[in-house]
Amino acid sequence: MKIFIPILLILSLISCSNEVVPTGREIYLVTIADDFYNYNGNGRKLENVVTDQAALYMQIQTLGDIHVMSYISQNGKRYTSSSPIYVPVDKNNVELDGNDSEDFNGFLYRPKEGEEESAWTIYEVMDYIGTLVLGEDDLFILSFSGHGEKDNGALMTNASSSSPQWDSLSPEDLLARLETMGGKKLLILDSCYSGVYVPSSPLFSSDVFSTMEKEDRWIGKSYPNAIKDALFSREKEKYPYSDIWILSSTGRGQEASDSLEGGDGPFQLCYGAFTYYLLKAMGYDTDRNEAVKKDTQLSVYSIYSYVRKHFPIYETQIQTPRVSNGGLDLRIR
Description:
By secondary structure, the chain is α/β, with parallel strands linked by helices. The protein contains nine helices and twelve strands.
């Protein structure tokens, strides 16, 4: 056991950053919600992706003035907005007077008067990201809710509202694009097979739930041995992106749940399982479906730790949320 004491001390130092939020930091947010409506006549529509991204957008707005671009695909229509408006609706998509109504079934994007469909593609999203120039202290957040491709975890979107085809963006292409942006980047993925974004190494692969019990820490019980393997193995895999942090909803080869059948609130069926606890970790009020501005510190690892601690035991057998980073933690607030 003595060998693990200094190792765990080192781990605690590198995972708990003293970083402060830079004064004057600019925040850029891109949200993507694609419900994959009627793909080729048999694609499974995702019911909660718009609600997921609407709530994340509203909560991230509490961090201060942010630059936003949202890409929404709902019910066969596609929109692009730099100032999206989302409205609470019931199961018949009838607008409700309040977010906390017992009839709340989610959020829908409300097009502005006269707004036409944009027919955006995932490649146009990447083109937009390519136009952003971040300073060293700036933060870019890309959040995606939709389908992931089984073979390689690629992000999948309908090619257009009228096309039976789909577009896909590979992890390699997405990470290569983010790497060229400057600043710090946070990638939030609520999609099947998104665990492929997390490097396969002794250190990262140890961070899984056991089949018999739920872990209440952001590190698993096998972590000490994994640290030893990572430090002394001749075949160490180094995480190549020192300025990209990733929160994924699944491990490798796992599917993500589009709703949460057993949770701790009245509206868990309205959110993806991962996003529901991600929102709670960030301070969002999931009982009233409202963003909450807080002054407490918030970092990537504190978010991940909360998700791991509160994720229902039965859900951990379906999907294991993951995290990867370049070393130190990243302060969000």
